[in-house]
Amino acid sequence: MADNTVKEALVEDHAELYDPAVAARYFAKFARIGSYFPRIAAELEGEGRLTRTESRLLGQYLAGVIGTFRALNHKYLMTGKAEGAPRLTIDRHESGFPVAQELMVMALDAAQADKHLSGMASEAELKDRMIRTIVGELKVPAGLQYALSQRLYFEALKAGGLFWARNDPDAQWLGQAGPRRQYLVHWAVWDTQVNLPVVYLMDLEDSGKKPLPNDDYRWPPLQQKVLAQSVGGLKLVTIATGFDADFEDLHPRRLRRITLGPMYSASFTLQSGPISRVLEDARAPEGQDWALVWTVEDLVSDREEEVKDGWFSSRVKQVYKLDPLTGADTGTTSLERMIVLPERPYQVLVEQNPAGLRGIRKFVVGAGGRLIPGV
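Above: the chain sequence. Below: its structure as tokens.
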């Protein structure tokens, strides 16, 4: 009945989850999906697709996404149960994740977390008052439960370790390559165009006089530059080429973009194409009616060329290798999509074998929650 309610209410791309049972199932679904994130990263590391450092950094961002959902779960725990309780807004079209506005509000709340917590009763006091209300007044302490959920929400924000709307760049030292220092520059955003978390990894060589993170003349402009261009509508080759042109002594040798999502679910999203039929025909039980897509875009420098830079000077320019078949359209050396889905939808996917999903690598959630790498 609740599923029918949410389907009737979802009449726009953005939808509020106002039914408490639906909101609870939504967060439970993402908690289950999130438990597979580190296992997928570990699988890619085991295959040599990620280095130990890259896997560790990616794992931090994935843990941040899980933490963000946990914090939002606290915030919306009393949706439809307590007066004034807020409602989560999700993007049900080609996303399945909360809208970017939710992350922006969360960042504003985090800045005021101490102020909110100082004015709230402690967790122990709230629980004591809840017990006295239940035993002494024989009432459901909805107001107190709401107060406790908000306290837990602000405590989670204060604790940090979350995935924010903007996760500023950081540089991981990798070593020395001749006269150049090597860094892995990484950052992440909640892309407002697609309402999805996106992680960027840039292998960078530095031929400047000072180490990049300690250089006040280059590091702040670099941060501003990459964040301004962290939108899914820009091709990797456009981002990397512009960066290479703007910073003479910084050499982006490789750039990757990892997009987490969309999440498709028969209960929460509207999907088109073959995945829609797979999920509908699977008729999987609650908790197993989903599929999550990862997209990994990769751009690699093929070589360096020396080009004129003014009348009497020259500079090094990166020449990027584009896929001969799709590179002109995608702006990448390679692009791979992966899909994670429970066993029942996977069985239907294999039976139907739709053309649009044949080139996607599958990870199957088997019995006991085992993650089975597919092909």
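The CA atoms of residues 100 and 192 lie 5 Å apart.
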